[in-house]
Amino acid sequence: MNRPATTDDTSPPAPGLHRPRLPRWAPAALAALALAIGCGIGLGAGMDSKVQWGLIAAVLYVVLTYGFTARVEGRRQAKDRLATSLVWMCFLIAVVPLVSLIWETIARGSKVLDGGFLSHSMAGVLTIQPGGGVYHAIIGTLEQVGIATAIAAPVGLLTAVYLVEYGRGRLARAVTFFVDVMTGVPSIVAGLFILSFWIIMLDFDYSGFAGSMALAILMMPVVVRSTEEMLKLVPNELREASLALGVPKWRTILKVVLPTAIGGIATGVMLAVARVAGESAPIVLLVFGSQVINNDPFNGAQSSLPYYIYEQWAAGNDASYDRAWGAALVLIAFVMILNLVARGIARWKAPKAGR
Asked: In angstroms, rounded to a whole number, what is the distance separating the alpha carbons of residues 111 and 104?
């Protein structure tokens, strides 16, 4: 004898019977209802922050979605919608600060961002006066990050190859331990290390190269970890096939393993570059800043975008605030370009599907 279907029944419905479902417009209607109630509660309680209104509306949307779905479709489907709603709510909570930050930076930085701002330095410009530019800081950032990449990328790549292909025993465990420790080292500690060793002990001058060495210390563990994970994704069958043909192991790594993982390796290096491009603490300690263009990173003080932003914001006037926001917008654009380049390289070098 067949049992009558209920909304809480987890067994499949009988042939020809369909359980009731919420209409497609129900999520949008519930979202609008939750938003209206959230705004009403916010106004009634005297809350000035629109963020509080949005949080109240988000909680109400989750509750309303679960309640209506449980009543119409059953508890099993309601739990599924509850999990989906929580995921979307967490995603929106994470995206809102990012969108707000980008919007605020574009709104304020676009006031001064033009050709003159990108092609002039601060030589001869008073901080209280409008004008000047960020050209000298762009040069410093490109040179410092470029030198740091030239130092950190080969060392990180070779370290990852050792850990994946050759690393066994205590030495490999020690290297892995120190890489994990370096991953959590604050940037100011890397700057203090180079300051004490390079400038105080060896008596070298402040320069862009000193800042590059500190940035390289911060980049190395990121490059090692990302490259290590990419090399582990290479199928062992490719290594075994190459070795079975009599190819030496070093040549197998060079001709088989690395080309297979080159897309992910390049992405990891680009992400490491983007991670250190905005570091300001080591630059403040080691590069020492400059108002003029210095194309030689090995001699004399040199500016950079993070230091320029710090310097202009510390000046404390409207003109310097505008320049700081403009430099922040240039820095964000630089990091976004690096991420796009990383994604392009990963897509270009990704293994092709099919024949």
From this structure: 12
For 7-25, how does the pLDDT look when each residue is reduced to its tens digit (9 = 90+)?
444 455 555 456 677 788 8
Cβ neighbours for 4, distance < 8 A, ≥ 6 positions apart: none
The answer to which of 123-132, 259-268, 273-282 has the lowest mean pLDDT is 123-132
Side-chain-facing half-sphere of 229: CA atoms under 13 Å: 10
pLDDT in tens, 94-107: 888 888 888 889 98
CB atoms within 10 A of CB 144: 34
Q: Which residue has the tokens 């194309």?
A: 295
Query: What amino acid is encoded at 154 in this protein?
Result: P
CA pair distance 199, 206, nearest whole angstrom: 7
Q: Which residue in 276, 275, 283, 297 sits closest to 192, CA to CA?
A: 283
How far is Cα of residue 192 from the mean position of the Cα atoms in its chain? Answer: 25
Contacts of 152 (CB under 8 A, 6+ apart): 215, 216, 217, 219, 220, 223, 272
The answer to whether 139 and 300 have CB atoms below 8 angstroms apart is no
Any alpha helices (H) in the chain, and if so which ranges?
26-44, 50-72, 75-109, 115-119, 135-161, 169-183, 187-194, 208-232, 236-244, 249-252, 258-277, 281-286, 305-315, 318-349
The token pair at 153 is 């990328």
Nearest partner of 264 among 164, 159, 348, judged by Cα: 348
Owner of token pair 């990180």:
156
pTM, whole model, 2 decimals?
0.77
Residue with tokens 């209409």: 23
Q: Cα–Cα distance between 307 and 279 in angstroms, integer?
A: 9
Question: Tokens 């001699």 sit at which residue?
Answer: 299
Q: Is the pLDDT of residue 155 over 90?
A: yes
